[in-house]
Each structure stands twice: as C-alpha cells, then as structure tokens.
C-alpha cells in the first residue's frame, strides 16, 4: 500500500487468524517502486517459502469527465497507474514464475474494459488497454505454466468512487457538457442500490488462485454480466443507445 497505516488493522486481524502477513509500503507510480518492493519482499519469501506464486494487480483509480476536459498529463497519469504499473510489476515477477513453471497473475480490470459510458472515456480506455495487455500476457506465458486472469467488477462498495479524480476542466462553464453531466449524475445515482460487498472479489481471487486452469476473464456483479453480454450480442447502434439511455 502507499500507506502502511491503512494496512495495519487488516494485517492485525489476518495475523490473528494464524496467518503471516507482512505489509510493505509501495507507490506503484515511482519508477523505482516495484523493484525496491520486490527486493525487500523476496528475502523474506525465500526464508519462508522460496517462491512468489501470485501477483494481484489491484491498484487503480478513475479519471472522470468529458475527454475534452482532460489535460494530456491527466491522461498520462491515468495510464501510468492503471496500465504501466501492472506491466512493470508483472515483468518483475515473471522470470521467477517462468523458472518455477508455475504462478498466477490476476489483473483487476472492470466492466469498463468492455462497456464505455459517457464521461468515463479516460478510465475505460485504460481498462481496455489492460484487457489487451492481459490477453497477450496469458498467451505468451501459458507455455511456461504461468496463468493470467482478469476480474471485471461492476458496482462494488469500496473507496473507489471517493478516489475518483475529475478532469481539470470537467465542469468548466466554457464547455457545453453541464446539462448532460447533471443528467448523467441523476441516472447514475439510481444504480447505487446495486453495489455489492467487495468480499465477493476477494473470494473470487482465492478461487482463481486455487483453480487448476483458471479462465481469462471473470465478470462479477449482475450489471457487469449483462453489460458485457449485451456489448457482444447487440448491434452497435442499439447497444450505444441503450447505454446512453440508462
């Protein structure tokens, strides 16, 4: 975590149930972050286990607003966290996983990796990229016994919404999107009743880790299943109209 303080109550509870959890501070956006973290963790793992068996790339955030209201740097930052960080962390652990002919890499994507909604173009484009990256990695590593999977959540009750970053000019009066943003927020508020307990994602991660042959993608949440299925089956114009309306 970027903040060890956030992890302390979780680690205390986990270690109290006969586990051995060692928290490490890591900012995945710093170029030196991933190798430094691994160099700290690997000696501990070597003493206890000797291997790194699983990498879960879970860090991410949403950049929100009309694309016209984003700065180039905000787009770079979005991809740095959501796309380049999983790329760097995966490449850090792949050599050891390949050598031991076993391992799991699980990337937390989103239904937004399939379904784009207005004002979520920056976030969705990063998740589309993560989906492609994960698919390629899965095919490349499959001959070496390393399995790559994606989890594609819908609406879950976490800090994700609170950590959303607005585009610099997302609601600028100089741009004409104000009424459309207001309508979007009215409609989006109705879907809050659909939010799920994030423990479901933790259990799914556990299932992927312990499954002999995990699948590539795991949508989770009814709205994720419906959205992804509709994007595959409906004509493009009809699907676009449906998303815009809801």
What are the SSEs and their pairings?
Blueprint: H1 4-16, H2 33-48, E1 54-57, E2 63-64, H3 72-100, E3 103-108, H4 121-141, E4 146-153, E5 165-166, H5 178-189, H6 199-210, E6 217-220, H7 222-233, H8 236-245
Parallel strand pairs: 1-3, 2-5, 3-4, 4-6
Helix pairs in contact: 3-4
Description:
It is built from 8 helices and 6 strands, in the order H-H-E-E-H-E-H-E-E-H-H-E-H-H. The model has no long low-confidence stretch (mean pLDDT 89). The strands form 2 sheets. A 4-stranded parallel sheet has the order 1-3-4-6, with helices on both faces. The chain is α/β, with parallel strands linked by helices and 246 residues long. Helix 3 runs parallel beside helix 4.
Write a concise synopsis of the structure shown:
By secondary structure, the chain is an alpha/beta fold. It has helices at residues 4-16, 33-48, 72-100, 121-141, 178-189, 199-210, 222-233, 236-245; strands at 54-57, 63-64, 103-108, 146-153, 165-166, 217-220.
Q: Quote the average pLDDT.
A: 89
Strand order of the largest sheet: 1-3-4-6
- Annotation, overall tally of beta strands: 6
Task: Tell me the number of helical segments per DSSP (H or I, 4 or more residues long).
Answer: 8
- SSE order, one letter for each helix or strand: HHEEHEHEEHHEHH
From the alpha-carbon coordinates, what is the Rg to the nearest angstrom?
Answer: 19 Å
How does the overall form come out from the CA principal axes?
Answer: globular
Describe the main β-sheet briefly.
4 strands, parallel
Q: Which regions have little confidence, pLDDT < 50, spanning 5+ residues?
A: none
Task: Quote the beta fraction.
Answer: 5-15%
Compute the separation of the termini in Å.
Answer: 35 Å
Class derived from helix and strand content: alpha/beta
**Helical amount among residues, as a percent range?**
40-55%
């Amino acid at each position: 975590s970027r903040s060890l303080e956030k992890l302390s109550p979780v680690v205390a509870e986990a270690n109290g149930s006969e586990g051995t959890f060692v928290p490490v501070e890591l900012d995945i956006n710093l170029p030196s972050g991933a190798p430094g973290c691994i160099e700290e963790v690997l000696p501990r793992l070597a003493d206890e286990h000797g291997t790194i068996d699983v990498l879960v790339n879970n860090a991410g955030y949403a950049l929100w607003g009309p694309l016209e209201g984003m700065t180039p740097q905000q787009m770079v930052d979005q991809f740095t966290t959501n796309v380049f960080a999983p790329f760097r962390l995966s490449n850090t652990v792949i050599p050891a996983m390949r050598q031991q002919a076993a391992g799991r890499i699980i990337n937390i994507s989103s239904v937004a990796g399939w379904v784009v909604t207005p004002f979520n173009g920056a976030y969705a484009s990063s998740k589309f990229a993560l989906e492609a990256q994960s698919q390629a990695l899965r095919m490349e590593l499959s001959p070496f016994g390393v399995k790559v999977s994606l989890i594609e959540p819908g609406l879950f009750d976490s800090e994700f919404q609170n950590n959303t970053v607005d585009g610099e000019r997302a609601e600028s009066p100089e741009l004409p999107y104000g009424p459309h943003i207001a309508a979007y927020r009215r409609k989006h508020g109705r879907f809050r009743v659909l939010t799920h307990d994030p423990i479901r994602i933790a259990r799914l991660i556990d299932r992927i880790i312990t499954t002999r042959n995990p699948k590539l993608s795991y949508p989770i949440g009814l709205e994720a299943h419906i959205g992804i299925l509709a994007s595959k089956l409906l004509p493009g114009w009809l699907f676009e109209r449906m998303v815009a309306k809801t």
